[in-house]
Amino acid sequence: MKKYTVINTPVHNIDGIAKITGRAEYAFDIQLPHMLHGKILRSSYPHAKILNINTRKAEGLSGVKAVVTGKETLGVKQGIWRRFKELCDEEILARSKVRYIGEPVAAVAAVDEDTAEEALDLIEVEYEPLPGVFEPLEAIKEGAPQLHDHAERNINVTRHIEWGDVDEGFKEADHIREDWFRCSSQHHVCMETHNAVASYSLDKKLTVWTSTQSHYYIQVLLSWVLGLRENDIRVISRYTGGGFGSKFELDSAQFCSSLLSMKLFRPVKITLTREEEFMATKRRTPMFYYLRTGVKKDGTFIAKEGRVFTEGGAYTSMGATALYLTGFFQAFPYVWPSYRYDGYRVYTNTAPTSAMRGFGAPQATFCAETQIDLIANDLGIDPVEIRRKNAMYPGYEVPGQATIQSCGLTQCLDKIEDWIQSRGKLPPNRGIGIAAYGFMSGGIFNWFDTPYAFSSAVIQINIDGKVDLYVGSQDMGQGSNTTMTMICAEELGVRVEDIRLHMGDTENCPVDLGAWGSRETLMQGNAVKMAAAKAKQQIIEYAAAKLSPNIVYDLDIKDQWIHLIARPERGLSYFDVVKEAIRGKGGQPIIARGHYTPHRKGMISPAYSFGVQAVEAEVDPDTGKITLKNCVTAHDCGQVINPIGVEGQLEGAMAMAAGYGFTEDLPMDEGKILNPNLVDYKVLRATEMPETKVIEVETYEPEGPFGAKEAGEGLTNPTAGALSNAVFHAAGVSIKNLPITPEKVLEALREKKKKKSK
Amino acid sequence: MIQDFVYSRAKTVKEALDLLEKYKDDYKIICGGQSLLILMRQGLVAPANLIDIKGVEELNYIKFKPKGGLKIGAVTTHSEIQKSSLIKKHYPVLIDMEENLASVQTRNWGTIGGNLSHGDPAGDPGPVFIALNATVKMANKERERSIPLEEFFIDYFETALEEGELLLEVQLPVVPPKTATAYEKFNIIKNDQGIVSVAASITLDSRGSTCTDARIALGAAASTPIRARKAEKLLIGQRLDDGLLEKIGKKASQEADPVADIHASEEYRKYLVKALTKRMVKKAWERAKIIARKGGL
Amino acid sequence: MEKRLLHITVNNETHELYVEPKRLLVEVLRDELGLTGTKRGCNTGACSACTVLLNGLPVKSCSVLAMQADGTEITTVEGLADGGKLSPIQRSFLDHGAYQCGFCTSGMLMSATALLKESPKPAKEQIIEAIHGNICRCTGYNSIIRAIKAVAEGKYKEEE
User: Fold this and answer.
1) In the structure, what pLDDT confidence band is assigned to residue A323 with cuts at 50, 70 and 90?
2) Residues of chain A contacting residue C103, judged by C-beta atoms under 8 Å apart
3) B99 touches chain C (CB under 8 A)
4) B contact test, residue of A185, A189, A622, A665 with most B CBs within 10 A
5) Residue B15 is part of which domain span?
6) Nearest CA to CA, how far is A25 from chain C (Å)?
7) Which of A364, B10, B62, B247 allows an S-S link to B16, with CB 3.0 to 4.6 Å?
8) Of B186, B262, B264, which has the smallest distance from its Cβ to A674's Cβ?
9) Local structure of A303: helix, strand or coil
């Protein structure tokens, strides 16, 4: 018998019709009467004092309506880590100093974009250039240029994680390896660039249409920087054209359009160009990684020590979280008797580094998994075997950090092992590499300092049985709208088409912290499930009164049918009971609320997804070029809610993670990004995708709705490591410096040849 | 953003040449605009006058004569070349080239004349047409002239087109007997412009065993597409073997003069020239052998 | 700059507009005609989010001057569904979840529509070639390829 009626069945994405008919209106598409267009002037210096800004000529250009500079703002240093004021260091619109190329210094509103752009050239900024520093290991030296007054030696944040006795562990180890890695940056490349339409009305209320992963965060942060009452600000984001971690902080489009609108009492639209997007909207944190690992000769893991310096860029942003998570996930998904991690985030005069899908874990997994294969190779142990020997298991406690409840890692390893064996002998120049990962399902942290529950939901059932479901979650393509609808339908016992979802509008949606850290399915899902259960209870009370069954019988609702669980043929139509229930409530619709905030769930997350990915790659020995042939992933996301959605998330994560592994990079020259366009920044196209296969390993996670966990961010973790291992097995060279370009592979092959001939 | 310009449209070659004369002080010609519009949107190119020749249908043709060879009008799109059965039959390497060129959207609107006039040393048609011994015909109001394609490229984004001159046609001679051409470019993402590219044409003797003529053209390996003439010379009169391939690969790589950029170092580009030259010479040779055995052209 | 007269048929409706010669086709479609289904994702003609059909051929509307589209027939995503009926490729996209954030979707649909018109039964390589120009950051392309393949295999007929 099928376990669930709605859950884990193929359901059309509820935004599907809008998206495939071109009717979905993104903030990118918003046109309002009387709307002006804005453009932002950005610093061309990586480090400089702003001595003076003269906007007279720009203001005088025909068609220009207003120019704003930082001097006209409240000068708030804002940041997402609101509980830690020293980490709130970004004004967005710089007032006295610029710290990266691309930092906003002024903004213009004009009748059209071309005029606004012309006006930028007329703004005269007097800079006093300062020496800049661009690499964390340089910035941390004595005497290096200092970016922020409060940060000596440019040290922004440090993190330390430790358990067991690492030094004792190394003494016990039979084999110790030390490896250094360099993890590159990466850009989100959302197809919809950052944008906002801000409209400030004469009754002093601000409405902002924007592309965001968290309308709540944007509402609160705007309130802070603009000095407006939180709920005099309305943030609307019905459709978001991609996020991947780039869109839950306050950005320059939102801030500058709001400032201009507040000056003019007219809507102002700012859309970032793709170049601005690359230059000035934050990116994955580059990391310099040192790992020292000790194991027994049979492959048992004993001790690991990690030291990481991250390139922070000019501001804290979300970099503090990435610093912690990389240290935390460095020990995943294995049992480490002892572990020590020290992380240092260092300010540099480059674009700030922040959150990007995986949030420090892809970097950690790349380094850890590459090293594990090298250790396995050193000891002559099979790569699957060494991982299986040390794998996390249900019930494992990461000392002082987390309790692992559901964990299907070993089954994932088994499935991947089966697949590898099925491949048989590979053609020449080909190799299969694997990587195992684990990832969080939403964080327990409240550095944002919200007084609200992390997720809330409200349900209202109308006389015709139509369910209004209000959620705070944000769908940026990952499918949370459909997931929440399915969870509600399953719990309430109705069909997806009975539900009308309300989201993306702070004016009528309850608070949810947003779509980041893989939190929506677990946290918003739990809130929805709770609300649906309470609504169901109200309906069942009326049904029970009507049916008058023996007191020992339970009732439930499945597929619009309220029935005795033990005797399902005895029941009533959901629609009929709803009508009576509403009458019984004095004509009030049925209303129920749900919420979720993790309490006492360790230091990171209530639940963890797991998986193992195998990448089969071919290396061209003459050019070093890598071709992806196959990619198989066995993953455990607990209970799959939306199977079409999960498969899509897996394939998409793989493409993005593969890009991180071998094609995407943000080379810089003294803080200037050299490839700020989609010709020179290489994302995978349909031509580079290998055959993919998804193997679901089903577990049940008690913390998640119907046993569900995250799926979609964790899947970004393993590919770079699996790829480096595939190259290792195909060509005998281990590249520890991302991305794994053909030039690096060729260089390594030539080195290897030279060594051999000696 | 695009700067304002005066827009004129030509329907015939005569109209086009008249417009070039009229605006000779400051104009740009737009046809498919797949390269030009990007430059204009970034403000890198800002002509006062834009002359649109997309509608000059008389320059949209692909003609073949058994004696005269192939003539492609400048306004012919990449897609039209890709779909041409004439070209498939007589110059199949051009189909290979078009299949690996940009995207279908670009090929549907971008033209061969526009591509060559852009003068990008990393462009695909340059090396391939040079390997096929192409000639280009240009005209201004006074006269027409034809020059070998190799002489058409002067420097980065600079061609032999003078003020008031319009590229009219690319001409390819009939492929000599027992001759085949192969083309490959090296890129990370398929169809991207080559980090380097190599086109090789090999002609074999009557028995199909020694090389009697060779043309090797390199793309993205210098400031224009160039012939690796020294490497070519090493092939004449030789039989194919690995030693020969290694020799000509090395020589071609020495003749290359690439720059370093974010995608590849100079050294790696030279290395790629060597690897690709070896491959393309071998591929062309093997194709030519098959042709020689068939006894056909 | 003096505006020029543009005659253009979009989704079977004819329009007479005055536009500045420097206006791109995508700007006329989105800003003048309000057809915001066609998106823009870059400034270098690389992403193909702006793909429309011009006389049946997929082109990047950001890389075509509006004036060059004078006298042509344009089809945008808004023109795919006939009255209340989704086209076969649209239905297949729905069934296969061949979109996530949806921003590249209109471009993908136009490329797919053009392919299927020209080759009703394309092989996988042809499908990949047809959508090669379209960047998608969300799906990893495979669901899109599956959706197009399903139409190619005859699983979706035009609705009566």
Assistant:
1) very high
2) 26, 28, 190-192, 241-242
3) yes
4) A622
5) 6-52
6) 8
7) B10
8) B262
9) strand
Contact A20 C99 (CB under 8 A): yes
Tell me which CATH homologous superfamily contains domain A31-130+191-242+247-280. Aldehyde oxidase/xanthine dehydrogenase, a/b hammerhead (3.90.1170.50)
Helix pair C124-131, C142-152: axis angle to 10 deg: 120
Distance CA A157, CA A478 (A): 31
Residues on chain A touching B264 (C-beta within 8 angstroms):
743
Cβ B109–C60 below 8 Å, yes or no? yes
Secondary structure percentages of chain A, helix, strand, coil, to 5: 30, 25, 40
- Domains of chain C as residue ranges with CATH: 4-79 (3.10.20.30), 88-152 (1.10.150.120)
Percent of chain A at pLDDT > 70 equals 100
Note the pLDDT of residue A593.
Answer: 98
Q: Is A658 helix (H, G, I), strand (E, B) or coil?
A: helix
pLDDT band for C5, please (50, 70, 90 cuts). very high
Q: Tell me if the domain spanning A357-441+604-757 has CATH number 3.30.365.10.
A: yes
Question: Considering its fold, how many domains does chain B have in total?
Answer: 3
CB spacing of B268 vs A682 below 8 angstroms = no
Which residues from chain A sit within 8 angstroms of residue C97, using beta carbons? 12-13, 16, 644-645, 647-648
Q: For A463-516, write each residue's pLDDT tens digit.
A: 999 999 999 999 999 999 999 999 999 999 999 999 999 999 999 999 999 999
Mutate to test the interface with A, among B105, B189, B280 (most CBs of A within 10 A): B189
pLDDT of residue C26: 98
Is residue B270 in a domain? Answer: yes
Distance from the B220 Cα atom to the nearest Cα atom in chain A, whole angstroms: 15
Query: For residue B1, is it within any domain?
Result: no
Dihedral of the alpha carbons of C98, C102, C108, C109, in degrees to the nearest 10: 80
Residue C113, helix vs strand vs coil = helix
Question: What residues in C contact B80, CB-CB < 8 Å?
Answer: none
Cα-Cα-Cα-Cα torsion A677, A683, A686, A692, nearest 10 degrees, comes to: -170
pLDDT over 90, % of chain C: 94
pTM of full prediction above 0.95: yes
